[in-house]
């Protein structure tokens, strides 16, 4: 059966209707995989972070009546993933090439699911918190290395503190290594290394979240399976990879031995006033196109749910 982005969007929308009520201000129910944020002030990053919604700043900056809008940022200052294609021109929404498949996929997913998508690789577009506040969420899509200048770092931090949403996808974890606040935004996590791009089995460990409802407990997918140092803490882990299913093993090219029985690939958290949904998945070009790849519809359904939750279209991190 040929899988299309339209099919994914339709399936995802049907599932996400199950969670269409606004998020409650009460603390979410505990989960066996929920590492929790009982200490609201984090000693490592000096901010309120974790799964307690009291860490969120609901200051009324985002009016649902105005619709929902996502900014996709994919600037690279180092190795560039094939799913990003050729570098984009300056400004907002420059012309796209045929190989800019991941950005094109996000535009189409937005069109099919009720949110607008702007995109850029121009750091100047992120230099003002006021400009960012016109978006319900910002996505870092396989950004690489130091992609922000001082003004953009300040603007992103002020935006998140004002209740903004953040989605970090794949090599967002290989970005801004020397900025502790950003490492905290990723859930106290950073890319260290990876093994071969290979098939494996994703375990849906928390099926209550809007990004995991309707996903199988186990589903096949191919990726680089990032090893992380540090690894996420005080987050709600949503999905993991079963390391025993990786035919070439999990050991990374810099020697990381993997994470054993708890190798997270997706999670969510409140952070410094905002909301963050994170996934290390999304390496393969086929995951972003209509070219068949096992598990791609589940990946895109998972991603769609996560984006909708940080946008405020659906409950967050439940």
TrEMBL record:
Assigned keywords, A-Z: Signal
Coiled coil stretches, renumbered: none
Signal sequence residues: 1-26
Domain ThuA-like: 100-307
One Pfam family recorded for the sequence: ThuA
Family annotation (SUPFAM superfamilies): Class I glutamine amidotransferase-like
InterPro entries referenced in this protein's UniProt entry, alphabetically: Class_I_gatase-like, ThuA-like
Residue span of region Disordered: 24-44
Name of this protein: ThuA domain-containing protein
């Amino acid at each position: 059966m040929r899988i299309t982005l339209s099919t994914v969007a339709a399936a995802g929308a049907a599932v996400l209707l199950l969670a269409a009520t606004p998020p409650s201000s009460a603390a979410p129910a505990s989960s066996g995989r929920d590492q929790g944020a009982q200490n609201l002030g984090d000693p490592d990053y000096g901010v309120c972070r974790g799964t307690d919604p009291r860490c969120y700043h609901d200051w009324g900056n985002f009016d649902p009546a105005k619709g929902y809008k996502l900014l996709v940022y994919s600037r690279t200052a180092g190795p560039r993933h094939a799913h990003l294609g050729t570098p984009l021109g300056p400004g907002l929404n420059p012309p796209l090439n045929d190989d800019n498949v991941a950005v094109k996929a996000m535009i189409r997913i937005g069109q099919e699911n009720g949110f607008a998508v702007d995109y850029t690789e121009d750091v100047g577009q992120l230099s003002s918190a006021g400009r960012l506040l016109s978006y319900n969420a910002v996505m870092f899509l396989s950004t690489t290395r130091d992609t922000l200048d001082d003004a953009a770092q300040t603007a992103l931090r002020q935006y998140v503190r004002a209740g903004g949403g953040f989605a970090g996808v794949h090599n967002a974890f290989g970005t801004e290594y020397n900025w502790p606040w950003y490492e905290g935004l990723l859930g106290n996590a950073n890319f260290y290394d990876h093994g071969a791009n290979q098939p494996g089995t994703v375990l849906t460990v928390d099926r209550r979240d809007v990004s995991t409802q309707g996903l199988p407990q186990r589903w096949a997918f191919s990726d680089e399976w990032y090893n992380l140092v540090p690894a996420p803490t005080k987050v709600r882990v949503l999905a993991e990879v079963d390391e025993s299913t990786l035919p070439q093993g999990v050991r990374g090219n810099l020697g990381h031995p993997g994470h054993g029985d708890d190798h997270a690939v997706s999670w969510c958290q409140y952070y410094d006033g905002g909301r963050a949904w994170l996934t290390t998945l999304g390496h393969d070009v086929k995951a972003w196109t209509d070219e068949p790849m096992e598990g791609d519809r589940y990946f895109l359904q998972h991603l769609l749910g996560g984006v909708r939750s940080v946008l405020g279209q659906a409950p967050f991190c439940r």
